[in-house]
Amino acid sequence: MAVRHHLIDRPPAAVWSVLEDPALYGEWVVGTSDSRPEEGDWPGTGSSIAYHVHVGPKRFTGRTVVRHVDRPRTLELEAEGGPWGTARIAFDIRPWGERTLVIVDEHPLRGLGGTLHNPLLDAFLQLRHRTMLPRLARLVERVTAAEPDGGARADAPAG
Predict the structure, then answer these.
(1) Model-level pTM?
(2) Contacts for 41 with CB less than 8 Å, ≥ 6 apart
(3) pLDDT tens for residues 115-150?
(4) Could you tell me which SUPFAM superfamilies the record lists for this protein (predicted)?
(5) Is 80 in contact with 86 (CB distance < 8 Å)?
């Protein structure tokens, strides 16, 4: 199991504004691009998004399904990785003063990844999270206002 945390310089509402936008998924999740809604109303339970995954010169289609959501605290996803199987990715979103502590817990669930799960795979996931969580923080900080009541998208119309 790979668990990592990161402190984001915005309140939880700002973090959720990015997590709830399926078009932004490919901007902060390592290896993905061109994310788009697939089924349901993201991030409602059972909803899904599709995206492209790049592995070297190869490009595959990926899919992530929301398995559990308890806004403003929890988002649990199941990412489908083709022959690698699926992974559970759980986000714990905690207020931390004027900031947000985001804890991600990821582990292979089914398929080849689940069968071959070992400390080396966990080390790889830790490296991935070392990139992914700062990307999420930069994106949240870039697209949302800095005010403590914040969460409003900086590019959203005032009103």
Answers:
(1) 0.84
(2) 47
(3) 676 676 667 766 776 888 999 999 999 998 765 555
(4) Bet v1-like
(5) yes
Q: Which domain holds residue 11?
A: 2-143
DSSP of the chain: -EEEEEEESS-HHHHHHHHT-GGGHHHHSTTEEEEEEEESSTTSTT-EEEEEEEETTEEEEEEEEEEEEETTTEEEEEEE-GGG-EEEEEEEEEEETTEEEEEEEEEEEEHHHHHT--HHHHHHHHHHHHHHHHHHHHHHHHHB--STT--SBTTSPP-
Q: How far apart are CA 20 and CA 136, in angstroms?
A: 12
- As a dihedral over the C-alpha atoms of residue 108, residue 112, residue 115, residue 120, rounded to 10 degrees, the angle is -60
149: in domain? no
Q: What CATH number does residue 68 fall under? A: 3.30.530.20
Instruction: With respect to residue 82, please indicate whether it lies within any of the assigned structural domains.
Output: yes
87: Cβ–Cβ under 8 A, 6 or more apart, which residues?
Answer: 78, 79, 81, 106, 107, 108, 109, 113
Q: What single letter denotes the amino acid at residue 134?
A: P
